Write the structure tokens for this entry.
Amino acid sequence: MLAKWTSELSGCWAALTAAALARPEEPLDQSCERLLAPVSVGEKSRTAAEIHARFSAADDDEKRDFLAMLSNRYDADPRRLRAAIDAFRLDPDPRSLAELHAASEPRRQQILRRLNEIPNGTAMLLAMRSTLLRLGRDEPSLAALDADFVHLFASWFNGGFLELHHLDWSSSGEILGRLIHYEAVHPIESWDALRARLAPADRRCYAFFHPAMRSDPLIFVEVALTTSIPVSIADILRPDRPVIDPATANTAVFYSISNCQDGLRGIPFGGPLIKQVMELLRSELPMLRNAVTLSPMPGFAKWLREEARAHSADASLVERLGAPGWHAHAAAQTEIRPLLMRAAARYLTMVQGRAADPVARFHLGNGARIEQLDWLGDTSPKGLRQSFGMMVNYLYDPAHVEANCRAFAEDNRIAASSRLRRLARSDAASRSARRLLALMEKK
Amino acid sequence: MLAKWTSELSGCWAALTAAALARPEEPLDQSCERLLAPVSVGEKSRTAAEIHARFSAADDDEKRDFLAMLSNRYDADPRRLRAAIDAFRLDPDPRSLAELHAASEPRRQQILRRLNEIPNGTAMLLAMRSTLLRLGRDEPSLAALDADFVHLFASWFNGGFLELHHLDWSSSGEILGRLIHYEAVHPIESWDALRARLAPADRRCYAFFHPAMRSDPLIFVEVALTTSIPVSIADILRPDRPVIDPATANTAVFYSISNCQDGLRGIPFGGPLIKQVMELLRSELPMLRNAVTLSPMPGFAKWLREEARAHSADASLVERLGAPGWHAHAAAQTEIRPLLMRAAARYLTMVQGRAADPVARFHLGNGARIEQLDWLGDTSPKGLRQSFGMMVNYLYDPAHVEANCRAFAEDNRIAASSRLRRLARSDAASRSARRLLALMEKK
Amino acid sequence: MLAKWTSELSGCWAALTAAALARPEEPLDQSCERLLAPVSVGEKSRTAAEIHARFSAADDDEKRDFLAMLSNRYDADPRRLRAAIDAFRLDPDPRSLAELHAASEPRRQQILRRLNEIPNGTAMLLAMRSTLLRLGRDEPSLAALDADFVHLFASWFNGGFLELHHLDWSSSGEILGRLIHYEAVHPIESWDALRARLAPADRRCYAFFHPAMRSDPLIFVEVALTTSIPVSIADILRPDRPVIDPATANTAVFYSISNCQDGLRGIPFGGPLIKQVMELLRSELPMLRNAVTLSPMPGFAKWLREEARAHSADASLVERLGAPGWHAHAAAQTEIRPLLMRAAARYLTMVQGRAADPVARFHLGNGARIEQLDWLGDTSPKGLRQSFGMMVNYLYDPAHVEANCRAFAEDNRIAASSRLRRLARSDAASRSARRLLALMEKK
Amino acid sequence: MLAKWTSELSGCWAALTAAALARPEEPLDQSCERLLAPVSVGEKSRTAAEIHARFSAADDDEKRDFLAMLSNRYDADPRRLRAAIDAFRLDPDPRSLAELHAASEPRRQQILRRLNEIPNGTAMLLAMRSTLLRLGRDEPSLAALDADFVHLFASWFNGGFLELHHLDWSSSGEILGRLIHYEAVHPIESWDALRARLAPADRRCYAFFHPAMRSDPLIFVEVALTTSIPVSIADILRPDRPVIDPATANTAVFYSISNCQDGLRGIPFGGPLIKQVMELLRSELPMLRNAVTLSPMPGFAKWLREEARAHSADASLVERLGAPGWHAHAAAQTEIRPLLMRAAARYLTMVQGRAADPVARFHLGNGARIEQLDWLGDTSPKGLRQSFGMMVNYLYDPAHVEANCRAFAEDNRIAASSRLRRLARSDAASRSARRLLALMEKK
């Protein structure tokens, strides 16, 4: 039924587009006015379709003009706003407050709502904001419009409206192809590689979808079911690994999580996704004991280089550390490993009293604790470049998630295993950081 | 996949409810505070579930207290608001305006968004507002909260998120049972009667659904495909009527349209529904020429009685007009019919320069025109009581919808067929109104 | 996708029907010949549709003629058959045997296969056989055709092709309405009564469907989840009973099982259905300990009357036993109950060394054992009429199903609980049968 | 509902497999006996699962033994058969005939039916026959078993049970991957190449599925919607071609059709697929005027070589014709083209009074006519090797399909366009064949 309707709608949509193209072009601000005028439902749809079609077809200059026009011309009505302020100051009751709130709402919010009211409207608004972000870096005039996008998207992409789907090899080609495209942590090289992440019984992939964008995920997480906490991404992705019976797994490993929609930047989906997937896996697989991540430390190498610079160490030495094949030498294991481990522990926990790493902040904010460091957990070029191959497991322990979350939010307190804590103990760690720097200088 | 998830979610939901019941009860305002605090995603869900569970179980006094507490305690933060006003007055730029808008947003909007973030949250918020409407008629303190409900619902139930579904005999028992319950115009007496409206090839039913409430429609319309404009609802609903091949139909008759969700009162769905159904039917059945309604005139009898009173006619006479069986007398046809027809024409078009009837205002606002009056179109007790059995066809002519809509919105101009216009011509009509009154007096 | 195709097919089917009607009518045997001739795929479809359309529209005489024609004219080709017999007798090798088997296949089997090859063909063949059964009771000429129907249906409705569906209140109106229609054990009085059997959490309904008949079940079973073995159908069906959490149930009660398709008479679906439903429930609800039935004894009253007659007891006395309200008297409890219980035990187990009751034979054949008798388990008029209100629980114990099944199949040995066995012990039981007869005579 | 059940079934299936492995291995003929014995439904399922599991795990020798055992030991029961023959010869009435047919049915058919009665049984039987075909080429002892497979599959894969699905980019990864695997005419190089055949608006792919094998197609056809009859496969597959609006297409081109299931060899699906797809496209796109194929001539080169040999021409010359790049020379166009065209016309129509080409026989048998030859229509290595690059369009003209089909079936008469007919005219064509041979000799 739905499918039928969708195809009919898309016919409809084609008709609208045709209509839009047929209309002699009017200035876009006039079209926007029509969206706010008392015209028929059909006329509103045609106008919204027209605006979207013309925006899509426009070049960057025209797009910037359109966005700036929205931003400048469709602020709150100044006269109404002033009256509302006066009324509220005179008599600050719920009614005058309500009017003040209403009067201060930029009129372009209503335009955006109307632009959403046609088939595919939501996706097109996301594309519009994505354009704004691209163009807007050095266009402060667009900030107000961006705030409206964020306000509406946060409300529309409310957790109550998201749908969690299990993606596997029976998912549609459309969605599967998008997973390849969107994967942001460990690139998926081919459809076969994708299949190896989705089809085996001990692999799972879950995504949030918004009902208005049924074949385009918002965020997805890849999960491996294992019998121990993994210490290397290669073990997870190896094509020839043995597949285990999920009923025997005791550990769920969240080894990759990717946001998909640039247009939704700033709207958080990761925390709810992890929570729902954990609940779902626990109810399905009662043998599961641990939920951990296998995570990159994307800022580690950069931070260490900056540290080196800051302590007047020769930064080029850190570069040498990253020379091809360095990690395969025996020295890496005996000399560098303990030093890098301590530096990493410090990086994760003690930089200016807070977590320096964005991934760490994300998981700590969700109530996880830092469980262990994985030496050479990711020896791909990207892994070596970002973090000298180091990875980290965050552990989600239901019994402590709540307390961890609060302690982090309120006191910036970081939950970590005692092992990690020992590693990071201030003097040992800073001594090792110093020794590392010295070592690098010697090289 | 979806079905699976839904059932898993409902398990999840049961767990949340259990959790809620297990927690020693804390004051509800404290729970609300927790919704705004930096707690974990899981804690937020548990809290939201707890509030919903306790609200559902509460008695009316407790419910009123909760709603009033939301309304009173969670207004905008006064200090922040005052600062924002001052900043804006000092320097009214986009940034200070944005802050003013943000600062004037009642904090309870965020609470409502959080209450929506659990499975079934949307339906429970609708129930909450439905309770507010029931309790709130004489509780002005709840008005501010109601405005927040309307603001959020209008955004969440945006046309871009609604799904149009064709309902027929393959629809679920859940949905079908709700159609019987929600039908507001011509009651559906039994499942067999429902089947007669959905299953035959020349009958259609379309509904809007919101994705967060998949088996509970927001609004639905019943359509008959016919070969002429019908003049009586009995002809449409007669169980023994011949079923025609839809491909031979030239007329789509919208004979019943019902809003379903009391909690969404004030959010309009009717116009978009009619528009989309018309487009869909036209693309499916290219032989269709007319789209008309067969509509009640719910306020006609009341208006005529008031007119009688206003013109000092003896109102009891109008009552007599409504005596059992009056319409079956020959006199009804010869004497009363022309008079009532003119009165009805006048009622629909010329009362104080605007349409007095709510159904008329709805269709005129959508761009329809008044096409013809149907004498004794509905001789059910309700039909005779509301409108002395009169019905009316509104015609949606795509070529004029836009102009009609604007003329009505901007100049209050009413579109009507020339026949109707003649009938309603001021002097004839008022003469007949006078004659009708006289006649009633004679009786 | 499927839905789309189905609707397209039905359009297609309409076209075929139209084509069929357009063709000047030819004798039906000529149409049958064309089904066997080397015509195009399209021509075959048109011809099959034509035959079905003409058969549906025919009166009973014409239908009988058509069926008899199939039966008589489309036997095996006698010349080919004779040659095959000769060849096989001369040289009985696999090849000559294969040819013999092929040559002995009646040509009408191929006609039936071709009649199945159009949309809805399967359902129409079922209707054709249903007609045959109705007409054929005293038409031995149709027996050969019926054997072909049975042969093909048994192959086509092979367990590997059936789909088990959980039916609940989200099932389609089409299917739900059919459940009301097909229920053969405890009639479903209304849609509300149906809802009470499907919607509560502690009620289940499962059905087999064939993929070619997606909205028409083959057989369905209704299950109650309870915390003890029920002794009365009224307890199961009472609308005001408390609903229990399925997770707390220890007993699955199969309280009604109905075959739906008259045209499939003789093809057994009950055993596989019970087996699959038990497996499914056990995997879903690990707390389940017992799987029992609550079954009627449809032949008990009849058998007892015949016994009475056979032992020269006055059969009218048994009739008196069935007088309105007899079971509500105290005497029923004290005097009649022990006697009827023993008679029932005997009826179920020891009549001429085998189970006399068809329902008993069904469950015993599936490996169940007779667990207990339920005095006044069904005091509906039908229950009192069939079995003086007696019901019986059969127990499916996975540990013994296999042995019970074999013992019953090979040695006609009946599995029963020790209590039942004691009740039925020959002398006590026959004494009570005699006392019952005496009592009846006294009355 | 279905999805749920499928996953439950697969759990069930896992359990069965486990059961199978747990049972101490018994000889396979004993397992087969148990399938025919009066055991419980559950025992039958377990046994069937066990046989399948052991067959899958067996090596080729064991597989051959199992198949031969089925073939030899489970023929018809000789005593019953002899009695049936005698009875029939004595009194050949419908009853004795029915018994003869039943008695001559090999008992292994019942075994095969039982092996089908578990989840995935059908797919496993297909795999079993596929193995038989692979092993059986020189094992005449397996022929009888193969005949049983064909008999049962022909009945089970009856057109009435097949489902036509439109496959596109929203189809599952499972199915899409199989299309790449199964494509037999123009190999699909990558997922991107697959997307280019499925996703554009002017491309379609339709497949037949059997309901017991929902994600494994039986046969599929790829269709291009165009505005003229295409003369080259490269034009169809070019990634940079312009996509046209399907509503403007007047020609549907069936450019690739592939059978998928080796285990169903000999069961024809192509004719019904083409017919249904044509009907579907015509009803969806009323502008369509032509339905043509763009087909290979797989046997042409081989035939021409044999002709050369037969006419004592030096076959190596034909080989030279196939030298790399020969077709790019000017001579190819001027000299060779007319000769090869005539030879091809002759090959398609006049070899010993019948079509020599298997693809030609297929389409002619479905009622198509040979419309035109496409010189260098396929210059891929395979195309040049098979047919010197020649392709051919067959045209399906609804007005003539029926007559063409009959004429071909009954009189071996080949439908061809007048142009093709002229090309193939005996003397011209044989002259050109001779000249071609001469030319080849000169080279």
Remarks:
- Strands of chain B lie at 163-166, 203-209, 219-226, 251-259, 290-293, 295-296, 369-374, 391-396.
- Residues 1-22 of chain B have pLDDT under 50 and may be disordered.
- Residues 163-293 of chain B form a domain with the Aminopeptidase fold (CATH 3.40.630.180).
